[in-house]
Amino acid sequence: MPAHPDLELAAAASVDVARIEADLGDLVRTPSITGREEIVQLEIASRLEEADITVERYSPTPQEAAEDPDWPGAEMPRASLPIVVGRVGRPGGRRILLVGHVDVVPPGDPATWTADPWGGEVRDGLLYGRGACDMKGGVVAILEAMRIVRSLADQVPFDGEVVAAFVPSEEDGGQGMLAAIRAGVTGDAAIITEPTDLDVVVAHAGAITFRLVVPGRAAHASQRREGVSALDNLFVLARALEADEARRNAAETHPLMTALGLPYPTIIGTVEGGEWASTVLDRVVATGRYGVRLGQSWRDAEADLRTCIDATCADDPFLRDHPASVEITGGRFSSAEVPSDHPLPTGLAAAIEDVTGQRPSLVGEPYGADMRLLVNEGATPTVIFGPGHVRVAHAADEFVPLEQVATCARVLAVWVLRQLVV
Questions:
Q1: Are 347 and 420 in contact (CB under 8 A)?
Q2: Are 49 and 164 in contact, with CB atoms under 8 Å apart?
Q3: CATH topology of domain 207-333
Q4: CA 20 to 30 Å from 243, out of 7, 49, 217, 381?
């Protein structure tokens, strides 16, 4: 039985779906592609201030962020790293975090959309637009929950504070989250409202991006046998990476990860090479993604990748003397896990069940997230719980169900009250 059932009922009933729709539409209509998050952060700070929530802003330079020994990489140029933090409650006691990232990926070809990617159109209860699911729906759920908690904060004694952190640069590595952690945004527990279809993610894999430079030997096309095609050599390495992927996935025994089927995929995403159609390629550059296994850091995965490439080169007559080179580029996502029986996921699952009448699943995911920074660098137990489904994230016609955003806000408000009200 909840300790404050009337308070929780009042909190859940206070969620305003019309306000959620208005907020989310405004944020989707504020483009915030990774590297350009300043304007959307002004919108979020303004909403917090209107709700009488204490607001703090941090703006470390990208140069300062890159000097951190645990810098998680970046893929987009930027001039700033704007972080917005809202606080409700009493500092010095228990501190819990609600976390969302405000950056989104580019929309891609507009012709593949049936809605304006920046329009915030609503159809049949679904709000469409780039970032609606990943993860402005979750950001708006945090805003609504913070409003509700603030409205109750003067009525009940709080044994601590709730901190809402809105960070940039998650999509290309997480340097915004790491900078927030370095500024003191850590706590006793955290929820990140990435899209989970309202289940609870307690474990996630990771990924690194790599650049592979593969040599060959040029020759005239009419004398093809005198040359060595770098593209053929890339095929050799690609087949080795496929075998490595199979071995690494077959070795996994954690049930949350084996349930995914292929928790640690490896792909080659781009290939560039050649300068003349009648010349055997003497150099190919490929970029790709390499999975980080549960329990691994990104550095562990880098070592696995280099071992695979080095061993393959050593076994090849040409590559033995002309080895391919590997460089880690872009985001560096380690893995993270919180035990399924930890008070954070069990307490959150209970709140979800009480609000919705349905018990959520505790799941693992194959993608990287800011969760690993809070767990590994911030010593903050963290789970992921939010509206929308990851299958539509980054896709054309991205959308989020407005009712799921409202449900997420109700759950967050109830969970926060259970954590902080004495």
A1: no
A2: no
A3: Alpha-Beta Plaits (3.30.70)
A4: 217
Task: Give the mean pLDDT of the chain.
Answer: 97
Residue type for position 405:
V
CB 220 within 8 A of CB 278: yes
Among all chains, which residue has been given the structure tokens 């609600």?
Answer: 98
Tokens for 264, please give them: 């640690």
What pTM was estimated for this model as a whole?
0.95
Residues constituting the chain: 422
Which homologous superfamily is 5-204+335-420 in? Zn peptidases (3.40.630.10)
Task: Report the pLDDT averaged over residues 257-284.
Answer: 97
Q: Which residues of 216-236 are buried (b: 16+ CB within 10 A; e: fewer)?
A: bbbbeeeeeeebbbbbebbeb
- Residue partners of 66: CB distance under 8 A and separation at least 6: 74, 175
Alpha-carbon distance of 103 to 169, in angstroms, equals 6
157 pLDDT tier (thresholds 50, 70, 90): confident
By the 10 Å C-beta count (0-12 exposed, 13-18 middle, 19+ buried), 276 is classed as exposed
Cβ neighbourhood burial of 172 (10 Å; 0-12, 13-18, 19+): buried
Pair of tokens at residue 61: 């330079």
By the 8 A CB rule, do 158 and 348 touch?
A: no
Query: 123: part of which helix (H) or strand (E)?
Result: strand 122-123
Q: How many CA atoms lie within 13 A of 68 on its CB side?
A: 23
* pLDDT over 60 (residue 1): no
Cis peptide before 135 (omega within 30 of 0): yes
Report DSSP letters for 275-313, one per residue: S-TTB---EEEEEEEEEE-TT--HHHHHHHHHHHHHHHH
How distant, in Å, are the alpha carbons of 240, 249, 314, 319, 322 from that of 311? Answer: 9, 19, 5, 10, 13
Structural domain boundaries in the chain? 5-204+335-420, 207-333
